[in-house]
Specification:
The complex is a heterodimer of chains A (117) and B (113).
Chain A lengths: L2 E5 L2 E4 L5 E8 L5 E7 L5 E9 L2 E4 L5 E7 L2 E6 L8 E8 L12 E2 L3 E5 L1
Chain B lengths: L3 E3 L2 E5 L4 E7 L5 E8 L5 E8 L4 E4 L2 E6 L4 E6 L8 E9 L8 E2 L3 E6 L1
Parallel strand pairs in B: 2-11
Antiparallel strand pairs in B: 1-3, 3-8, 4-5, 4-9, 6-7, 7-8, 9-10, 9-11
The chains are: A mainly beta (117), B mainly beta (113).
């Protein structure tokens, strides 16, 4: 069966420090991968998605970046965190090719809570 | 573009039925989803429906779709305290354009004993 792992679960970082959140998926190949941010009362904001290794699409301009060095690994990074980067970050995956002619069901990780002080 | 709207809060008494509503704007064939998020956790898919269907039932959950009004609802029968969570409505087009689901802001369901 497929599983998705995110870490760390909780992170407290000072303003200006770097960030690295990691997400891995097991039990599938060539998944579509997504990073979302959930700020209090603002729902889910899509940050990045990837349909393959090295293929990253950015939805929102910000000081965050994403990379996909391996097929089932998705990393969210920042060189210098801002206070506004605080939030709950969710990684998700969906089956390869899903969405083109059928339902695009996302499976989410447990999330990473980032507090920038 | 797609837009999904939900009310932010719903409070019900344990044992009553809960009805969570959602409206969407995409006029093309689309899939519509309901996800549940428990405190401090990720989202979990509850059910989804294609826009050519009117209703889908799964145990205590009933999804109703009014295509004309672009209105989707999730009914939870015999609501329990364990149903307290945030419920997200989402839609994704069946073909063409971005297939990535657009999520609503979520409805916080509070169940009182």
């Amino acid at each position: 069966s497929q599983t998705i792992h995110q870490w760390p679960a909780t992170l407290v970082q000072p303003v200006g420090s770097p960030l690295s959140l990691e997400c891995t998926v097991e039990g599938t190949s060539n998944p579509n991968l997504y990073w979302y941010r959930q700020a209090a009362g603002r729902g889910l904001q899509l940050l990045f998605y990837s349909v393959g290794i090295g293929q990253i699409s950015s939805e929102v301009p910000q000081n965050l970046s994403a990379s996909r060095p391996q097929d089932r690994q998705f990393i969210l990074s920042s060189k210098k965190l801002l206070l506004s980067d605080s939030g709950f970050y969710l990684c998700a995956w969906s089956g390869p090719g899903q969405g083109h002619s059928g339902a695009n069901v996302l499976t989410f990780g447990a999330g990473s809570r980032l507090t920038v002080l | 573009g797609e837009d999904v709207e939900q009310s932010l809060f719903l409070s019900v008494r344990e044992g009553d039925s809960s009805v969570i509503n959602c409206t969407y704007t995409d006029s093309s064939s689309t899939y519509l989803y309901w996800y549940k998020q428990e405190p401090g956790a990720g989202l979990q898919l509850l059910t989804y429906i294609f826009s050519n269907m009117d209703m889908k039932q799964d145990q205590r959950l009933t999804v109703l779709l009014n295509k004309k009004d672009k209105h989707l609802s999730l009914r939870i029968a015999d609501t329990q305290t364990g149903d307290s969570a945030i419920y997200f409505c989402a839609e994704s087009p069946r073909s063409g354009g971005s297939y990535i689901p657009t999520f609503g802001r979520g409805t916080s369901l509070i169940v009182h004993p």
